[in-house]
């Protein structure tokens, strides 16, 4: 709370950092030696920095970053400094008068146990861990904490041998020894120069699983996955996934691992998903620990994908890092593209693409259309932690995917090779990446670069014309991007647009289009505001389909009849377009109450469900109606109650119409190797549980779901049945919940599944359950996973409860944000992001939200929340 003696920390007090203000670092830091005396209450950190001024910037002052450090000693080239020699204020250590290369030695004390923000060095259970991206290293010691300053690190860790038997840091182990008083020490050396955000240590009582990997270059690597004592068995899957990732990056991108050890640590307290620290990845435990009782099929897939993601950063992020934080998507968008390809190559490409597009449309499109819109390469920020967004990650990956589409696999790969070779060991920029792509392919990418600079999702409006006498078919394209709060003027983008034409016989027609814009058959490159293409010798009016595989992150506006969409859903060769045709049928059915669309959708879903040759995962995805946020995103104004009602009743109607088929397929699928984790049985499980959940809507007796719950051999089946019971308010719900609760024991991951289930029950009354949970030991506001499972899923995945008419949902959010903010600003700020599209709501709800946001702003929260509130209210 602000009081009269304290200057109120108003959000605008945090300086705006602008991309165009970038200047190269005035001081280099080629070598760092660190020594830690690890103690949870206070850890002593001794640092030696070898500093060198940039000859191109003579006279530049030496200013180091340091946040909340208790300074004990400072020494310059062996000379002890006195308080007159330096000034330490507002997170900066000024050393006036220093102008040439020098060695700075500092000793500071830090307090891991009090660190609830989980940035810098902190305590998680029995472990001491670090998190340094983006600006956490300055909470450990004085340094030049920016990504374009690369150093070679040597690190010594000293600690009590019993409490901290395992001592890990980046790079390779150099030596270890016993010390007096029951302490011991380990030295690590990382030969690869790296920025401070990739620094990491981990210490404590841990168990591991371990194996060896021989790289394609012949290097022997020891690979370890570490977790809390007793958890090793749950790390086996993660270890296997690590080996798959290492091999895949060699085969698909020609990238080998470059150290003698690769360590991965699972942490129960972690703000984000995982972190790619060089040679020492630190993970949120929920992306490591996985076995048949604690992980669903979706969790296994997520573990493999996040393991891949962090491992792939070893090249896209670590060997080549980012010049400044505006280039964040250079490593994140590129690495998401790489992890998407990894999953696609190992599993079903079709299913992976649909899942990713669902995520893009459910999270990124709304972000790009709401109060928080920003480009893939932002122009300014106050708090960089607010920019780890769907736009940076998911849209960034789409932009890389478009390059892949335009260039083709071979040229794209040449561009990547050139980029890794040219910028190895340096900090690069988006421009440099694009230069490599251009040089390797000969493609002109000047206009393409706007994808990084311009926010908002473009709309491509298409009209078609068939001239029977000339046997000519034409397509007319118009592109436009609506203004966003951050950018008024928009320019035309370079859009790779795939298309397909189908003839009366449902076969693809492959005519050569008459236009200079066609890169190759099936691909048009849109560049102008308006463009047309013509196809000659087309015998009958074709059915045309666009954006195969979602070839660009755009919206298409093309008038299909319901019959055409239903036909597309059946004849399209591209699975994403088939799925999308069904989504397009669902939108008017849900938003405009269109019976014709609803009927066409129902018929199409019926045929699909009856098709035993179709991949059951694909069928399950097709049966999922567009989520609430996609419906909000589809119209400038939303009537929350009407949309939720429409969705509920269409789900029910589909269940009623297809009850027999749903039952038959449920029974068939249930017999297919129900407890195996292999791909085919998992796919069957996905559709089986979809059938179960739909049937539960019209089987309030709950018998089928309860039977599945009782016999379930996998967490997928157990949770699937439990969700079906809860959503249907079946009589066995409480009994089943009690059984599940008893299984939780000390398993925090199961705890989060349980509270997440309660928080996402699609009913206004779920709010009461959330409020009740706040008073139980299941709730731990300091733990980001607990916050995400309860408040995060409530705010992001329970529109019926969040948007309650009486405002109780908003009131809960607004009362919890300051509590979380005082502990972990990053987590609190993310909760506020759930309101990014609040201006689409009705006047009453807007008024309640606006009042709540203003009240929060007046409290003077963290820089993270301050910036978020400012943008939400702008
Ligand atoms: N760089 C991490 C990733 O792989 C994300 C992250 C950001 C983790 C900030 C921690 C802190 O995407
Ligand atoms: Zn990443």
Description:
Helix content is 41%, strand content 22%. Strands 6-5-9-3-2-12-15-14 form an eight-stranded mixed sheet, with no helix packed on it. The protein has 26 helices and 33 strands. The chain is globular and about 90 Å long. With 874 residues, the chain is α+β, with helices and mostly antiparallel strands. Helix 1 (236-253) crosses helix 2 (297-312), helix 3 (328-346) crosses helix 5 (390-423) and helix 24 (825-833) runs parallel beside helix 26. It binds phenylalanine and zinc ion. Zinc ion (ZN) is lined by residues 309, 313, 332, 335. The site of zinc ion has 4 residues, from helix 3.
How are the SSEs placed, and which strands pair?
Layout (H helix, E strand, L loop, with lengths): L16 E2 L8 E11 L5 E11 L8 E4 L4 E7 L2 E2 L6 E3 L2 E4 L6 E9 L9 E5 L2 E5 L19 E10 L5 E4 L2 E7 L4 E12 L6 E4 L1 E9 L5 E9 L7 H18 L7 E7 L6 E2 L4 E5 L12 H16 L7 E3 L5 H19 L2 H21 L10 E2 L8 H34 L2 E3 L1 H12 L8 H4 L5 E9 L4 E9 L14 E8 L5 E2 L8 E3 L2 E4 L3 E7 L6 E4 L8 E3 L4 H10 L3 H17 L3 H16 L5 H8 L4 H6 L6 H18 L1 H12 L8 H20 L4 H9 L3 H13 L5 H12 L3 H12 L6 H8 L10 H14 L1 H4 L5 H16 L1 H9 L9 H16 L4 H11 L1
Parallel strand pairs: 2-12, 18-19, 19-21, 22-24, 25-33
Antiparallel strand pairs: 1-23, 2-3, 3-9, 4-8, 5-6, 5-9, 7-8, 10-11, 11-16, 12-15, 13-16, 14-15, 17-18, 20-21, 25-26, 26-31, 27-28, 27-30, 27-32, 29-30
Helix pairs in contact: 1-2, 2-3, 3-4, 3-5, 4-5, 5-6, 8-9, 8-10, 9-10, 11-15, 13-15, 14-15, 15-17, 16-17, 18-19, 19-21, 23-24, 23-25, 24-26, 25-26
The structure holds phenylalanine and zinc ion.
């Amino acid at each position: 709370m602000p009081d009269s003696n304290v200057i109120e920390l108003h959000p605008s007090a945090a300086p705006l950092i602008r991309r165009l203000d970038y200047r190269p670092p005035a001081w280099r830091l080629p070598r760092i030696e660190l020594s830690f005396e690890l103690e949870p209450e206070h850890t002593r950190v001794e640092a030696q920095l070898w500093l060198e001024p940039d000859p191109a910037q003579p006279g530049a002052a030496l200013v180091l970053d340091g946040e909340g450090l208790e300074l004990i000693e400072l020494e310059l080239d062996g000379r002890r400094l006195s308080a007159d020699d330096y000034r330490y204020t507002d997170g900066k250590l000024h050393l006036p008068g220093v102008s040439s290369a020098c060695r700075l030695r500092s000793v500071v004390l830090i307090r891991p146990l009090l660190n609830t923000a989980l940035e810098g060095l902190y305590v998680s259970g029995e472990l001491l861990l670090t998190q340094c991206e983006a600006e956490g290293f300055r909470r450990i010691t004085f340094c030049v904490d920016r990504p374009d300053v690369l150093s070679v690190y040597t690190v010594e860790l000293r600690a009590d041998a019993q409490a901290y038997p395992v001592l890990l840091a980046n790079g390779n182990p150099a030596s270890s020894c016993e010390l007096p008083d029951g302490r011991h020490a380990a030295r690590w050396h990382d030969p690869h120069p790296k920025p401070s955000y990739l620094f990491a240590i981990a210490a404590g009582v841990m168990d591991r699983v371990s194996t060896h990997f021989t790289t394609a270059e012949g290097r022997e690597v020891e690979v370890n996955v570490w977790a809390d004592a007793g958890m090793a068995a749950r790390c086996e899957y993660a270890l296997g996934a690590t080996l798959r990732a290492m091999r895949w990056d060699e085969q698909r991108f020609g990238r080998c691992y470059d150290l003698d050890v690769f360590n991965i640590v699972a942490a129960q307290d972690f703000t984000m998903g995982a972190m790619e620290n060089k040679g020492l990845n630190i993970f949120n435990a929920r992306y490591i620990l996985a076995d048949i009782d604690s992980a669903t099929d979706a969790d296994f897939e997520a573990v493999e994908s996040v393991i891949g993601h962090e491992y792939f950063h070893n090249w896209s992020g670590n060997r080549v890092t980012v010049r400044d934080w505006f280039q964040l998507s250079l490593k994140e968008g590129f690495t998401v593209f790489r992890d998407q390809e990894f999953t696609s190559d190992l599993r079903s490409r079709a299913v992976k693409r649909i899942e990713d597009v669902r995520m893009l449309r459910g999270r990124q499109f709304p972000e790009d259309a709401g109060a928080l819109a920003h480009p893939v390469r932002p122009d300014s920020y106050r708090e960089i932690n607010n920019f780890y967004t769907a736009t940076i990650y998911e849209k960034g990956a789409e932009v890389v995917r478009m390059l892949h589409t335009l260039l083709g696999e071979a040229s794209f790969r040449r561009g990547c090779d050139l980029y890794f070779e040219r910028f190895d060991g340096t900090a690069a920029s988006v421009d440099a990446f694009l230069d490599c792509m251009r040089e390797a392919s000969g493609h002109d990418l000047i206009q393409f670069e706007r994808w990084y600079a311009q926010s908002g999702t473009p709309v491509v409006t298409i009209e078609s014309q068939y001239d029977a006498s000339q046997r000519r078919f034409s397509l007319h394209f118009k592109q436009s991007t609506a203004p966003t709060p951050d950018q008024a003027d928009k320019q035309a983008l370079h859009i790779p647009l795939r298309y397909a034409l189908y003839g009366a016989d449902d076969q693809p027609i492959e005519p050569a289009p008459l236009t200079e814009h066609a890169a190759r058959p099936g691909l048009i490159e849109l560049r102008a505001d308006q463009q047309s293409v013509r196809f000659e010798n087309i015998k009958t009016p074709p059915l045309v389909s666009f954006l195969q595989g979602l070839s660009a992150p755009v919206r298409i506006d093309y008038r299909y009849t319901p019959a055409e969409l239903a036909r597309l859903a059946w004849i399209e060769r591209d699975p994403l377009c088939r799925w999308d045709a069904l989504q397009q049928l669902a939108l008017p059915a849900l938003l405009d109450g269109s019976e014709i669309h609803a009927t066409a959708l129902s018929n199409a879903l019926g045929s699909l469900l009856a098709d035993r040759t179709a991949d059951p995962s694909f069928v399950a995805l097709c049966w999922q109606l567009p989520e609430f946020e996609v419906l909000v995103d589809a119209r400038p104004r939303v009537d929350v109650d009407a949309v939720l009602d429409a969705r509920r009743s269409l789900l029910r109607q589909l269940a009623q119409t297809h009850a027999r088929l749903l039952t038959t397929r449920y029974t068939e699928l249930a017999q297919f190797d129900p407890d195996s984790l292999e791909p085919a049985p998992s796919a069957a499980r996905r559709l089986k549980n979809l059938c179960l959940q739909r049937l539960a809507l019209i089987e309030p007796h709950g018998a089928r779901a309860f039977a599945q719950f009782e016999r379930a051999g996998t967490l997928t089946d157990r949770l699937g049945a439990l969700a079906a019971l809860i959503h249907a308010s079946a009589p066995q719900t409480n009994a089943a919940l009690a059984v599940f609760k008893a299984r939780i024991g000390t398993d925090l991951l199961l705890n989060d599944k349980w509270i997440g289930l309660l928080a996402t029950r699609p009913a206004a009354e779920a709010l009461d359950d959330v409020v009740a949970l706040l008073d139980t030991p299941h709730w731990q506001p300091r733990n980001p996973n607990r916050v995400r499972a309860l408040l995060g899923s409530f705010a992001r995945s329970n529109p019926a409860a969040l948007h309650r008419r009486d405002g109780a949902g908003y009131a809960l959010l607004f009362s919890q944000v300051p509590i979380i903010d005082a502990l972990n600003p990053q987590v609190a700020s993310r909760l506020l992001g759930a309101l990014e599209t609040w201006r689409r709501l009705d006047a009453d709800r807007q008024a309640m939200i606006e009042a709540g946001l203003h009240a929060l702003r007046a409290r003077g929260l963290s820089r993270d929340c301050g910036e978020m509130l400012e943008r939400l209210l702008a």
